[in-house]
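Page 37, continued from 36.
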């Protein structure tokens, strides 16, 4: 059938078909660029490029890698507009503005995010099964790699912003921490937030809770390596968070929306806080209604992460399955239901993916 006939009989806009097909190819292309960024991050190639330009041979030698692989990966990164290439000397370079976003220890390094996509993609078959049969893929199925990947997602932000950017948004809390109070972090993962605060505020005592024993082991190893005496960690389901003696502050960094029983956990946090206590909840920046997320360029990624991880780990245990995109409106409603009526929402410095809910008790 010729194209003109197709158009005449179906009323399909041929040019629109072409544009849309290009969009789909471009989405698939971006997916592969993400994989190449993951490889370049894992192998140290991005850090090598950030340290200075070179030919593929020079870069491979500096990174201790095989030149042929380096050259092919660089082909993807050059054509994707990430790495610059000068054909005359066959030299590759990562301009400093891009190096800031793809290397180094700080909160602006986005390279570790590439690994999250690769990890979650490895579970497509299991999630597809849940589409057909219900249930979900449990947290344990994602470990031990999840523990490392999650640490990679949060460590740079915590190093760069926890003490100087995030805590100042919590009102009087830094002053109270300096004086000496008791603090918990629920769903603490590898415990970096607790260790950073324990080092900064030696008069306060800190405890981190997580259900994952491998994450708690990593947290304790850092406490020991840093010689901290005021940080402790416990493997615990935080629906059983101790309520006595009360805490002055409880933190939750991206650890509420994937809970099996998020309402139960919020109520337990409320019960565990003493008078004047504060709950600091960093969670995903989104709206609760789909229509309000249209136009948010990060929203497709958030719904994807939700389907492949945050929602499914909760549904796997018959949980609420709030998902990554539970959104600010539902979060505020659930906080209010748990007894947190006075909540201020802040943007998180250097982090377009999250907001900070600061809930003070009277
Ligand atoms: C998305 S990760 C965030 C980890 C850490 N807060 C960070 O920002 O790197 C959520 C964490 O919550 C933990 N978690 C989930 N449900 C839990 C529960 N009921 N009790 C304790 N920890 C839980 C998971 O094991 C995981 O480490």
């Amino acid at each position: 059938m010729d194209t003109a006939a197709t158009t005449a009989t179906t009323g399909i806009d041929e040019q629109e078909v072409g544009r849309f097909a290009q969009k789909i190819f471009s989405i698939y292309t971006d997916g592969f660029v993400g994989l190449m960024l993951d490889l370049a991050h894992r192998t140290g190639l991005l850090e090598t490029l950030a340290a200075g330009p070179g030919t593929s041979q020079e870069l491979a030698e500096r990174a201790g890698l095989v030149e042929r692989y380096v050259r092919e990966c660089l082909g993807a990164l050059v054509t994707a507009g990430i790495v610059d290439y000068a054909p005359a000397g066959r030299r590759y370079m990562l301009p400093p503005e891009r190096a800031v976003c793809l290397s180094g220890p700080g909160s602006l390094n986005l390279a570790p995010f590439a690994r999250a996509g690769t990890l979650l993609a490895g579970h497509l078959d299991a999630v597809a099964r849940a589409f057909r049969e219900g249930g979900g893929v449990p947290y344990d199925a994602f470990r031990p790699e999840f523990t490392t990947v999650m640490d990679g997602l949060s460590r740079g932000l915590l190093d760069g912003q926890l003490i100087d950017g995030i805590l100042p948004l919590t009102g009087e809390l830094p002053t109270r921490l300096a004086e000496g109070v008791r603090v918990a972090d629920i769903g603490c993962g590898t415990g970096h937030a607790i260790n950073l605060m324990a080092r900064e505020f030696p008069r306060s005592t800190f405890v981190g809770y997580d259900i994952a024993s491998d994450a708690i082991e990593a947290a304790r190893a850092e406490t020991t390596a840093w010689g901290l005496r005021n940080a402790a960690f416990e493997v615990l389901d935080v629906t059983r968070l101790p309520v006595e003696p009360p805490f002055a502050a409880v933190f939750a960094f991206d650890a509420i929306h994937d809970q099996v029983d998020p309402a139960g956990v919020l109520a337990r946090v409320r019960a565990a806080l003493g008078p004047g206590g504060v709950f600091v909840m960093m969670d995903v920046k989104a709206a609760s209604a789909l229509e309000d997320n249209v136009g948010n360029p990060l929203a497709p990624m958030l719904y994807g992460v939700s389907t492949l991880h945050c929602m499914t780990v909760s549904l796997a245990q018959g949980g609420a399955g709030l998902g990554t995109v539970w959104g600010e409106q539902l979060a505020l409603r659930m906080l209010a239901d748990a007894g947190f009526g006075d909540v201020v929402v802040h943007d998180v410095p250097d982090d377009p993916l999250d907001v900070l809910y600061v809930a003070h008790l009277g």
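The CA atoms of residues 69 and 175 lie 52 Å apart. Flag for discussion at group meeting. The chain has a mean pLDDT of 96.
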